[in-house]
Amino acid sequence: MTTVTLQRIDALGVITLDHPPVNALSRAVRAGLLARLQEALADDGIQTLVITCAGRTFVAGADIREFDLPLQEPHLPEVLAALEASPKPVIAALHGTVLGGGLELALACHYRVAATAATFALPEVSLGLIPGAGGTQRLPRLVGAPLALDMIVGGTRLDASAALGAGLIDGLGEGEPLALAQGFLRDHPPLSPRPTAVQTVPPFDPDAFEAQARGLLRKLPGQEAPVLALDALRGAWQLPLSAALQRERELFVARRESAQARALRQVFFAERALAGRNRALAKAAPPVALRQVAVIGAGLMGSGIALCLANAGLATVLIDTQPQALERGRATIDSYFSGALAKGRLTADQANARAALIRCETTLDAVADADLIIEAVFEDLAVKQEVFRQLDRLAKPGAILATNTSYLDIDAIAGVTGRREAVIGMHFFSPAQVMKLLEVVRTRAVAPAVLATALQLGERLGKTTVAVGNCHGFVGNRLLAVREREATLLVEEGAAPEQVDRVLREFGFPMGPFELRDLAGIDIAWRNRQGRGESLSPAERACDLIEQLHARGRLGQKSGAGYYRYEPGQRQGQADPLVAGLLAAHRQRRGLTPRSHSDTEILERCLFVMINEAAWLLEEGIVEQPVDIDLVWLHGYGFPRYRGGLLYHADQCGLERIVSTLEGWSAALAERGTRISPRLRQLAAEGRRFLDS
Ligand code: 3H9
Fold it and tell me: N or C: where does the chain have the smaller number of CB atoms within 10 Å of the terminal CB?
């Protein structure tokens, strides 16, 4: 339901936009706004106008659902130009999230007042767009070029007091936005029209501006929109207003159609659809109420999980039977809260209250009152099974037992308990208090209410929470293992680790597979390979670079050397002649003549084997929907958001091309113990796509 109404209160004309859930500027809203504006201007009894919104927020932007449709009149820039040209003063009365086109609407009004909880941003670049209704022109005129740059290119969000300080809004207060506007009018008689666009940009230092822009763009490699947004912003002082507005509009219209914007829209809606599916599951099987949660193991992972729980207001018991480990865990927690306090992210009261939610204990019987217990001990099946035997004995009836294993068989863990229906996987990513992903791993016997509880907790922790099935490595690490295997084989054949890493970085990953391996630890990969024993294919077993590095004590960043060499205190590795020598000797031993690889071959081999493995995951029913695989890799492994996700990217490449490329490698794939997924073949043969399947 969409309504835009005009109400007269004495000489005030109040235009209210009502288009749930977030008052997005759909065609109907734009048309309604224009019509009510014309009525208000024609009404001699109205002297001043207020624009406000019903519901939980002022306009949160253009209607993203319309971006795949042809442009429809009236266009927002025209509506805003009419508003700004109003001979009667117009006040925007703001609350909630004033975003994108919503902020542009507010900027076109003559005055702005806001509720104290309101926030302001132009997040268009996060959707692959640039502001398309005057944002790049009106914002710098009000707040100056440097802050406009941070907001338009860097996506900086302002709270209401910062917005007031910056001159973005003119008044601020508690209460209903309309009442705030009425108060503002009373305090500032007589108001006259004050168009933003005719003002000039306040003076600024152009060199400092350009340096700031370079700094921001460096943090956004591969993304096209921020560069174009900057281009449009410069128009605010380089071009006459009408030319600058026209240029902004042309860039915006072209961006709507761009591959990156389409990909980012796909991700935007996929994230919300996932949250909706999780909510529906929680409704179908009411979750268990969580009054207290216990975490077993106070290592980096366990303390990180405890932090997540405390940040979400949950009473938490952190247990480690080794007092020294527990002390280290407590120190990690304390330093996190003091850091948050120092950075102003938490007040002292908040930090103290959250820290007090975490109680540290050294005996497992402290789990007695917990409704949920999350185990985060050493990654070894026998160790975890022993912990679960004890937990089964000590936990109260009905308590849920979760494991944070990153690849072990959770059915085998559940099997040692007398409550298999209450055992589930909750795979957090390190550092748990930072990383957005949570894989919730279903076991064979898991009860629906247990699954619902884990999913609901994930949402409460602010994680992108994806339900997956139980298999070695689940979704994320299973695909990671396949990519790492392919990358290692490429190196064995003659590519340099730094070439492989560069190619994947240029694709948009924050780091390449060897850089990631050095960060995560060569010892972790070594232990994983030991654990896989007979299941390693002959090709994988023969490509034993991990064992060779491990034997030399090259454990990655933590030991100062792995695939790369690290200067003390440096996280950026240097290519190491020792590794080049080790590789040369390895190839010689195996009778391999090194060859060079094109960047395209490297990229395709790393990605296409993952796409094939993802198709197997679908075939095996490990995920409910293809998009879940994309969300796991987007939020847990740095897949570039502007490429939409692994399977979205596969769809863009064309499945037929992927299958025919994989067919060309089928002998090599067989050596690795892999076949082309029948599902992938079928989709390709039918000319279909993953995300429509
Ligand atoms: C723009 O404005 C371009 C202009 O410069 C140029 C114009 C010419 N459109 O996130 P939630 C839906 S670009 C359509 O779960 P929250 C969303 O899909 C835009 N629908 O709630 C969901 O639907 P469902 C710039 C939208 O409270 C429901 O609303 N603006 C839009 O966690 C609830 O969303 C942005 O980029 C939209 N613009 O967060 C803001 N926004 O229930 C994007 C939301 O069917 N939006 N929906 O799944 C957000 O950041 C968050 O949604 C918001 C609320 C903070 C508003």
Answer: N
End-to-end CA distance of the chain: 31
| Nearest atom within ligand 1 for CA of residue 276 | 48
Give ligand 1 pocket residues (Cβ under 6 A): 21-22, 24, 60-65, 76, 97, 99-101, 104, 123-124, 127, 129, 131-133, 135, 252, 272, 276
Ligand 1, atom 33, lies closest to the CA of 21
pLDDT at 532: 81
How does pLDDT run across 266-320, given as a tens digit for each residue? 999 999 999 999 999 888 899 999 999 999 999 999 999 999 999 999 999 999 9
Atom of ligand 1 nearest to the CA of 104: 5
Query: Is 124 one of the catalytic residues?
Result: yes
Range of the domain at 562: 476-692
Q: What's the whole-number mean pLDDT along residues 248-269?
A: 98
Confidence of residue 537 (pLDDT cuts 50, 70, 90): confident
523 inside domain: yes
Catalytic residue among 124, 248, 375, 613: 124
Q: If you measure from the C-alpha of residue 234 to the centroid of ligand 1, how many angstroms do you get, rounded to a whole number? A: 27
Residue count (the chain): 693
Count of domains forming the chain: 3
Centre of ligand 1 to C-alpha 132, Å, is 16
- Domain shared by 547 and 612, yes or no: yes
Pairing of strands 423-428, 437-441: antiparallel
Ligand 1 binding pocket mutation candidate from 248, 272, 277, 459 (most atoms within 8 A of CB): 272
Same domain as 481, residue 453: no
- Note whether residue 559 is domain-resident: yes
pTM assigned to the model: 0.94
Q: Spot the catalytic one: 104, 486, 493, 498.
A: 104
d(CA 418, CA 175): 55
- The answer as to whether 267 is a domain residue is no
What is the rounded distance in angstroms from the CA atom of residue 599 to the CA atom of residue 618? 29
Can you list the pairs that 563-566 forms with residues at least 24 positions away whose Cβ atoms lie under 8 Å?
Answer: 563/497, 563/514, 563/515, 563/517, 563/518, 564/497, 564/498, 564/514, 564/515, 564/518, 566/518
Structure tokens at 120: 């302001």
